[in-house]
Amino acid sequence: RRDIHLFGEDQPKPNYPVVFALDPHPRKPSVMAWAFVTPKDDVVFFDEMEISGTAKEIAYAIRAKESSHKAKTTIRLIDPAAKAQGSNFSFETDTITEFEREGMDFTLADNSEAGYNIVQEYLGYDKDKPLSSFNRPRCYFTKDCQKTWYGMTHLMWDDWSLRTLRDKKEKIRDYNKDLPDAVRYILASRPTYRSFQNWGPVAFGNFQQKQNEVQEIFMNARR
Q1: What is the Cα–Cα distance from 214 to 191, expressed in whole angstroms?
Q2: Residue 49: half-sphere exposure toward Cβ, Cα within 13 Å
Q3: Which of 3, 13, 71, 179 ranks highest by number of CB atoms within 10 Å?
Q4: Which SS3 state, helix, strand or coil, does residue 90 take?
């Protein structure tokens, strides 16, 4: 709802962790979203980008975009299909390897069906009760995320019906789902403010080492 989940322009405070998600596409523009996490563990999507090009061009555009942010990116997530996805300009490597060559490491996002329920959980609240500290969403969007907002508010299921439950054959339509996928990747990681207290800006290093470190942080945060 525009009056609940959307508010004016905003930027993270310098100490807020920022989570970035990339959904790369070899044959159409790649999409990406940035969200910051507040001390109350609210997740606020504050920036987005859609761009075509090579890994080198996309990495350059990401760094240029982040130069205007007031907080440093803490973790980068990517569609796990990128690990097996051929790059759009080379048949010898995969997409993740191409980004590693540009000094940009990623952690594989959770692309399971459970992510849809997690998004619903973050957006949900009891509409029959007044908003309060105990009854409110934990996910918001700023007006700088117009395409993300449009995608989230126009996402539809195939074989839509008025029934409450969906048949197993039903699935999200591909149209306008790319940025919502980036939203799902970030929320499915269940980022918390506390889990990143001692976690500096994202480093450019070994992909597998970064993957293991981030998984350990999420495991500790859930204990």
Answers
A1: 11
A2: 19
A3: 179
A4: coil
Q: In angstroms, how far is CA 165 from the centroid of its own chain?
A: 26
- Partner residues linked to 86 by β-bridges: 94
Residue 32 to residue 105: CA distance in whole angstroms: 15
CA distance 20 to 78: 8
Q: Which residues pair with 132 in a beta bridge?
A: 135
At 79-112, the pLDDT tens digits run 988 887 655 545 567 888 888 888 888 999 999 8
Separation between Cα atoms, residue 189 and residue 195, nearest integer Å:
11
Give Cβ neighbours of residue 73 (< 8 Å, ≥ 6 apart): 18, 19, 20, 34, 66, 201, 202
pTM score, whole prediction:
0.80
Q: Residue 66 and residue 101: Cα distance in Å, rounded?
A: 19
Strand order across the 139-142 sheet: 6-7, 139-142, 43-51, 30-37, 18-23, 73-78, 107-108
- Measure the CA–CA gap between 149 and 155, rounded to whole angstroms: 10
CA 98/CA 95 separation, integer angstroms: 5
* Conformation bin of residue 127: beta by default, left when phi > 0, alpha when psi is -120 to 50: alpha
